């Protein structure tokens, strides 16, 4: 069953040349994009949808979230807005609530957040374990995540659980816990930060994960300058996330590497950190992605559009750069060729904006601009 999509005011395929096409049309066949080109030369299809002069782009790829959780941290957020600092220790609150939740409660919570993201145009999601922190709980979270999201990341090294010995816990995270979780995930991540895991413990977990064939991601340089970015680049991580506090040497290291710098502006705003220097990274030649970091502690939003608008309005990224950073580059950071662009052969994940151009994402910040969403060739929004 094929569908011809016409009436596209602006088509951003995010293909190799990052072109913005006008007068274009697109054919979806099954779960794939079958054809992209001038509407005047469009091939016949079984059905036709006219999107009425709206902009079309790939679905967002949100490459950093923590959606397997229970509980609420509104009080912690309110205290922060009243001047308290964000610390890694708040993670323990969510760990306790998550351990106490049933599988079905966690499933329902995840389903709600995935649906919320989809309704805003996010068609590919990564999520992490990290609120379990026992072997059984981390395996449970990985299994539950794999039921509903595209990419799952092991984050046993998120926090040393209260009362645990840091060295012994890091050895567990690099040993038996990793061994138990690895069959259920493609990625491993470490929170390399003061108050979480230091450089040598982070390195131990990451090298053990790489030895098991997992791709690497790192939470680095979130709360201050530190070794996270350098370590990620040295180990060939696919992504280092946060990058809020970068030394010039970190920018140079990222620019000379294949590691994507994934910026999480909603988190920086919600934790009253400065916004990352996206301009320095881009001007140096580093690959930059944007993600929500949706989690109940430091960044409780699923809105990629908010991140894109913030990147343009506050981080001096162009609209083109921000859209690429929310589609094609996070796909690359997840080693996915099938999502984040709309060339023939790509997964038919299509985001139609209720606007004639994608510039409206920054021009009309805060306005819900998702008109319709297709995922794997099926229109899912509106259902
Ligand atoms: O990316 N930095 C570590 N992990 C999350 C925070 C999770 C939490 O506070 O619950 C983050 O910000």
Description of the molecule:
The structure is a single chain. The chain is an alpha/beta fold. The chain has 15 helices and 16 strands. The strands form 2 sheets. Strands 1, 2, 3, 4, 5, 14, 15 and 16 form an 8-stranded mixed β-sheet that branches. Strands 6-7-8-9-10-11-12-13 form an 8-stranded parallel β-sheet. Strand 15 (370-375) and strand 16 form a beta hairpin. The longest helix has 16 residues, at 103-118. 54% of the residues are buried. The structure holds N-(iminomethyl)-L-glutamic acid. N-(iminomethyl)-L-glutamic acid (NIG) binds at residues 66, 90-91, 94, 191, 219, 222, 267, 293, 295, 297-299.
Offer a concise description of the structure:
β15 and β16 form a beta hairpin. This protein folds into two domains: 2-58 and 341-381, Urease, subunit C, domain 1 (Roll); 60-333, TIM Barrel.
How is the topology of this model organized?
Layout: E1 2-12, E2 20-21, E3 24-29, E4 32-38, E5 47-58, E6 60-62, H1 74-81, H2 91-100, H3 103-118, E7 122-128, H4 135-148, E8 151-157, H5 166-174, H6 176-181, E9 187-192, H7 199-211, E10 215-220, H8 228-234, E11 239-242, H9 248-255, E12 260-263, H10 265-270, H11 278-284, E13 288-290, H12 304-314, H13 319-325, H14 328-333, E14 350-353, H15 360-363, E15 370-375, E16 378-381
Parallel strand pairs: 1-5, 6-7, 7-8, 8-9, 9-10, 10-11, 11-12, 12-13
Antiparallel strand pairs: 1-2, 1-3, 3-4, 5-14, 14-15, 15-16
Helix pairs in contact: 3-4, 5-7, 9-11, 12-13
InterPro entries: Amidohydro-rel, HutI, Metal-dep_hydrolase_composite, Metal_Hydrolase
Binding site for 4-imidazolone-5-propanoate: 73, 131, 158, 222, 298
Family: Belongs to the metallo-dependent hydrolases superfamily. HutI family.
């Amino acid at each position: 069953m094929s569908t011809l999509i016409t009436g596209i005011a602006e088509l951003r395929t995010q293909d190799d040349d990052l072109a913005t096409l006008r007068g274009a049309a697109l054919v979806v066949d099954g779960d794939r994009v079958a054809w992209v080109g001038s509407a005047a030369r469009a091939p016949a299809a079984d059905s036709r949808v006219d999107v009425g002069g709206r902009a079309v782009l790939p679905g967002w790829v949100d490459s950093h979230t923590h959606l397997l959780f229970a509980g609420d941290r509104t009080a912690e957020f309110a205290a922060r807005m009243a001047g308290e600092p964000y610390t890694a220790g708040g993670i323990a609150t969510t760990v306790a609530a998550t351990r106490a939740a049933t599988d079905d409660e966690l499933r329902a919570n995840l389903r709600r957040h995935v649906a919320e993201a989809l309704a805003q145009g996010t068609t590919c999601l990564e999520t992490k374990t990290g609120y379990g922190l026992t072997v059984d709980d981390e395996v449970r979270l990985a299994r539950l995540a794999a039921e509903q999201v595209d990419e799952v990341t092991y984050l046993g090294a998120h926090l040393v659980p209260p009362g645990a010995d840091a060295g012994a816990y890091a050895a567990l995270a690099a040993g038996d816990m990793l061994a138990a979780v690895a069959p259920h995930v493609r990625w491993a991540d470490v929170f390399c930060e003061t108050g979480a895991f230091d450089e040598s413990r982070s390195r131990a977990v990451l090298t053990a994960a790489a030895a098991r064939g997992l791709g690497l991601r790192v939470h680095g340089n979130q709360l201050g300058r530190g070794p996270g970015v350098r370590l990620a680049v040295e180990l060939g991580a696919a992504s280092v996330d946060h990058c809020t506090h970068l030394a010039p040497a970190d920018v140079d290291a990222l620019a000379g590497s294949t590691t994507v710098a994934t910026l999480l502006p909603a988190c920086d705003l919600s934790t009253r950190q400065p916004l990352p220097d996206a301009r320095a990274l881009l001007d140096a030649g580093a690959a930059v992605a944007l993600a929500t970091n949706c989690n109940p502690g430091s960044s409780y939003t699923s809105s990629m559009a908010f991140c894109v608008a913030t990147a343009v309005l506050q981080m001096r990224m162009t609209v083109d750069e921000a859209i690429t950073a929310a589609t094609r580059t996070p796909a690359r950071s997840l080693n996915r060729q099938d999502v984040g662009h709309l060339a023939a052969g790509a997964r038919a994940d299509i985001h139609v904006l209720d606007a004639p151009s994608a510039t409206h994402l920054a021009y009309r910040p805060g306005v819900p601009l998702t008109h319709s969403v297709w995922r794997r060739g099926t229109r899912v929004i509106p259902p």
